[in-house]
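Complex 220.
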Amino acid sequence: MSNPVKIWDLATRVFHVALILLVAGAFITVNLGDEWMSLHGQIGLTLLSLLTFRIFWGFFGGHWSRFSSFSLKPSLVLAYLKDSPASSSSYPGHNPIGSWSALIMILSFLLQALSGLCSDDDVLFSGPLVPFLSEQQVEWATFYHSEIGQPLIISLIAIHVIAVLFYKFILKTDLITPMISGFKQGLHVLVSSNDGWMMRVFALISFGVIFYLTWHFLAA
Ligand code: HEM
Ligand code: HEM
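Predicted structure with protoporphyrin IX containing FE bound:
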């Protein structure tokens, strides 16, 4: 058996855990009552920083976290669907379905956070961009945030979790352990993701700058 290869760098793994916790927080706070909405907005701003960081990391992060390593070509998706799971090990990073689902999730959550900035709950809380928009634009954003974005992201999360469990229990391909440890076994790849301390410090500083800018310009 070949040596374990580092696929998911620490930044991507921390991003994933933080995303799960913050999305849970966003859903819990909107259900607790009006006085929790400002915490909802703060969680949303943190999510916005996190997603912006993941996009940045998609260009400057470890090899397999980069969008250029995602397998997005329609021909690859079709070929993968035809002979999965036999071809699983030929994709060290996200396989073609995983690549599309990661990209769609990142963009949908980003849209959710952006529409939140322009939403108004008509009670106590409104997003920081509301004063700059017309009433109709705010109505639209709020409609998207509540009636389109909300069911969309719930469906994406449900499909995602079911897919990951399907891989584990039906296709006998464990994607979960690598998302925790960073390593995959049994691959014949030459390229591993750079996850050294310099890279980790670079990730931390980049996230810090994005977080600072987001809060500086958008905190109410
Ligand atoms: C990805 C991040 C976010 C998620 C997952 C999220 C999720 C949600 C959900 C599930 C609701 C309840 C909708 C309903 O039941 O009608 C909601 C409402 C709301 N959110 Fe967010 N949100 C996010 C970001 C934000 C941000 C950044 C802000 C503003 C700073 C914000 C402001 C609001 C407002 C004002 C409402 C009330 C809308 C209404 O009354 O229909 N959200 N959000
Ligand atoms: C709120 C819930 C969740 C959200 C929003 C979410 C979102 C995401 C996103 C955006 C990615 C792409 C990672 C990247 O390239 O940066 C991903 C990958 C992944 N997630 Fe989740 N996730 C959630 C819950 C879970 C749970 C509960 C599990 C475990 C059962 C899980 C297992 C995985 C695995 C294994 C991958 C890697 C898939 C692959 O190898 O292609 N996720 N998730």
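The first helix runs from residue 10 to 32.
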